[in-house]
Amino acid sequence: MSAPTIPAPTALGVTAIRLGITLLGVTAFALSYAALRQMAVATHIPGPLTYAFPLVIDGFIAIGIGALLLLRTAPMRARMYVWALVGLATATSIWANALHAIRLNQQVRHDGLHLDDVTVGALSAIAPLALAGAVHFYFVTRHHQTQHELAVPLTEQAAEQPPVPSSDSDGAAESPPVTEADVPKPLAKRRGRRPAASDEQLVSIGRTVPRGPDGLIPRKRFEAAVRKEGYPVGKDRLVGAMDVLHADSADTTG
Asked: How do residues 52-106 score in pLDDT, each as one tens digit?
């Protein structure tokens, strides 16, 4: 029993999912950005650079997650190195968001609902975690869609190939009768291995091979001529025939 085929997501569904992931990531980034920027001000970073401080932390997380997906087939040492950097950046973002929320919770006078520092710190960690998750979701859906688009042309190409005709009884009834003249009788002999040429045949074939500038018979050209005649040939027998031909040429010249 074959496994059920999972239908491919529609273009509208993929677009809606990506839009939702993007909206989640932008919202989480804005929440984390506000807290990290105030932490940059508290650490006395110069004015304009406080806007870049959150990008260093949260942007590094996004780039690191993308690098992890690209290096999924890399050696374990390389992946562990990237995992360590991404984990360190994520922990830093969570710690900074939690510290910012706890300090504000300790300074603000509460007239209504008051939460303890642990709860406030845990809730403030949602934003950086949601940002990391949204980036990961986006890359995963993008990779899945790319793999599906690459697989579709292969499926269509296989579907366009003509079906192989089956040799059933109907096809046999419609085919014309085979006569004795149509049967290739020598085919069985042709498929067998042809016996090797004798030494006299090799010498005879070698005399038809054009010689090189040095007056010698090129071995590759000689071998090609023998195989063209349909004979298998070994290197030792070929060299022996060449020696005979060269000796005859030397005797004739002398």
From this structure: 999 999 999 989 988 888 888 889 999 899 999 999 999 999 999 999 999 988 8
Burial zone of 126 (CB within 10 Å; 0-12 exposed, 13-18 middle, 19+ buried)? middle
**pTM for the full predicted model:** 0.50
**CA 147, CA 161: separation in Å to the nearest integer?**
22
- Look-up of token digits 């040492």: 77
For residue 3, being part of any structural domain is answered with no
Which helix H or strand E contains 32, and what residues bound it? helix 11-42
Residues 93 and 217 in one domain: no
Tell me which amino acid residue 104 is. L
Residues 142, 222, single domain; the answer is no
Tokens, residue 227: 């195989």
| Residue 164 within any structural domain of the chain | no
Backbone angles phi, psi at 57, to 5 degrees: -80, -60
Contacts of 208 (CB under 8 A, 6+ apart): 225
- The reply to whether 141 and 246 lie within a common domain is no
